[in-house]
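TOKENISED FOLD:
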Amino acid sequence: MLVQRKPVGAVSAAIVCALIVVAVFAPLLAPRDPYAFNLDERGLPVRMQPPSSSFLLGTDPLGRDVLSRIVYGARVSLIVGFASVMIGTLLGTALGLVSGYWEGRLDQVIQRGVDTAMAIPGIVLALAVISVLGQSLTNIVLVIGLVIAPGASRVVRGTVLAVKQQTFIDAAHASGASAGRIVLRHVLPNVFAPILVIGTVWLGNAIVIEAALSFLGLGTPPPTPTWGGMLSGEGRRNLETAPYLAVFPGLAISIVVLAFNMLGDALRDLLDPRLRNR
């Protein structure tokens, strides 16, 4: 039934599940070692070989298998996406709950900080922090989480302000429940759906930011295979002579990001009662 109502969302969910399977079982699915320099019969590296039966997506200038590197690059994208979104949504949810429920001067202080953070383009903020902290997977996850948090906070705050007007919140106050209990037991469950949609949409954005940082040389340091790193390195240097080095990583990024965005839209339509019956 849901597949018939949201076929695009179902296809997107299948692509996301396939990405998870590829990332988890990369050692079994990758045809070759992504770090190894493949040699021919004479013992020379098989450099810049176009797609063939031996190397389905070709080899890079060092003789490494492009398909294997794309498969292992899915691991980096998945780790960065899920970890950074988890950090960003948790931080944004906490700020949004505090700001929306208690309001007053505390709300003003938090919102001015959120406004300041949102005024800075995400990629600029990421570049500034990475240039200070240095290149590592952990720093990239933290930076992207900080980029996600302000927007998540704003959405959660708006939802909390709407939930506070409901009669069951007044009933909880009348029963003598503490503010913390009301927030955790009554407010938080009602903002779960927007949080889920935010997280799903931002998974694609997190992958794009990681790829952009790698493209600019500030992402996960080599030789770890990443889709953005493959684009910025051998892909950009050999775009005219070997376009496949840039086309295949670019397709992987485009398909996965589009799948996450379409999945987020489908979840929004299913979870939002105002859109459910349209």
Summary: The mean pLDDT is 82. The two ends are 15 Å apart (CA to CA). Residues 2-25+65-271 form a domain with the MetI-like fold fold (CATH 1.10.3720.10). The chain has twelve helices and no strands.
